[in-house]
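hi! just following up on the protien thing from before. the input was this:
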Amino acid sequence: MEFALVGAPGSGVTLRLDYRAFAYAGKFVLGDPGKAVLRTADGSPAVPEWEADEPLSPAVDESAFDADVVAAVSFSPDRTDPKCCRLRYVTVHVARRGEGLGPRLIDRTVDRLASEGFDRVMIAVNNPFAYAALHKCGFAYTGEQTGIAELELARPVDAPASDDPDRYRAGLRVFREGDRDLDPVEEEFIADRLEGG
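and the predicted 3d structure came back as:
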């Protein structure tokens, strides 16, 4: 598997991801944000044995999908701070989730953004699983929220944010106590981390 920056912000590069396998697939056809991926080194399908739960719409050409992509991230400079880059969307193929590919992609992307001159990276997350994965990548809850039920996380590009357990738990409590409809799996995930340390 290889990391690739497939397009810088403003390059117009798009990715065609199978919407049945990737969350936010439609966000990657927008050309303005930059995009980076983890993909097979030889261009072969990332998950050849995977079968979708639903049929493909007849209007969609399956051969147009970037089938070698396992994980993707889109990003763009912050509108108010030119030294900060915002990760917009992160997605991992449904059949490969839980393998640490999202954090691996984020780590490589942060390294690349550092070489591009950014000194800080931010992301807003809307679920506790993404929150925990980004924490593993050195991001910390800023105490701010944006959008609808999104927690702001940030980290410097040259080192992880300080690993403050109280700040980490504060973010988890926002998910638990906020105006969210958590499913039982999310509730258990949060409880395990708050009560188990």
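The CA atoms of residues 169 and 193 lie 8 Å apart.
The chain has a mean pLDDT of 92.
cheers
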